[in-house]
Amino acid sequence: MVKGILYLVPTPIGNLGDMTYRGVETLKNVDIIAAEDTRTSLKLLNHYEIKNKLISYHKFNERKQTDILISLLSEGKNVGIITDAGTPSISDPASIIVKEAIAQNIQVCCLPGASAVITALAASGLNTDPFIFVGFLPVKNKERNNLLIALEKMPHTIVLYEASHRIIDTLGELAKVFGSRECVIARELSKLFETYLRGNLNDLAESPDFETRGEFVILIEGKTEQPISDEELLKIIAAKAKRGITSKELVTQVVETTGINRNRIYKLALSLKKDYADRG
Could you tell me the pTM of the whole model? Predict the structure, then answer.
C-alpha cells in the first residue's frame, strides 16, 4: 500500500489574506486536518470554505494523536497539519509527528508561508545573516539563565518569542544579561496594530512604552567585539611578562584573555622583547 503524505501548512500570523493559494488547495484536498486549536482554525477554514474533517493536535494530546495520524498515513491517507498561526513544528507540537513520520518512511512536505520569525527579522534592521532562533525561553529558572548566559556570547542576532503576560519581566531579565545592546520588539505582526519598537534594550526594559497585549517577537543584536589596538595589547603583554612566565605561556594567556590571533600576539611579544633588549 502506498503511504500518504504529511503536509505542514503554514497559516496566517494575523491577517487572513496571507494564506497562500497552495495552502488552501492542499487543505481542501487532504483527507484530514489536524489543528492546534480547532476553534481558532475553524475561522480560517470557514473563510476559505474548507470542509475537510478536523481534529485537534496540541501539546496535551500530541502523543496519542500522533499514533492515530501515523496509522492513517500508513493506510494511504493524506494529512494536513496546521497551527494557530505560522509554520507548524516551529515552536509547535508538530515537530513530534514530523520525526515519527520520517522514522516510518512517510513523506513530509512543508509548504512555504507565514512565519513570525522571518517577518520580524526581515523588518528589524538588525543583521539577518546569521541569526539564532530561540523560540520561547525555558520556564525553569536554571535552564533559562544558562541559556541566556550562553546566548550573550554569540555574535549572531537573537530572535525569541514571548507571551504578553511575561513580556515586561522578560525584557528586564534580558537587559540584565545583554545590557545596552540594540533591540527590536515586534508586536501583533500583520495585524491592525502591528508595532515595531527599536532602541537600546536597557531603555526599552526600563520604560516599556507599548501595549502589553498580543504576541511578541524580541530581537537582540549579537555580541560585537571591540577592536583592540597594538598599544593596548602591548600593555597586556608587558603586564604578563613581569610575572616571569615563558614566552609560550605568555602568548597562550594573552590569546585566551583577548581572543586575538596567536600570530599577532607573538609578533607583538617579540617586538616588546627586542625593545627591552635595545634599552639594555
Answer: 0.77
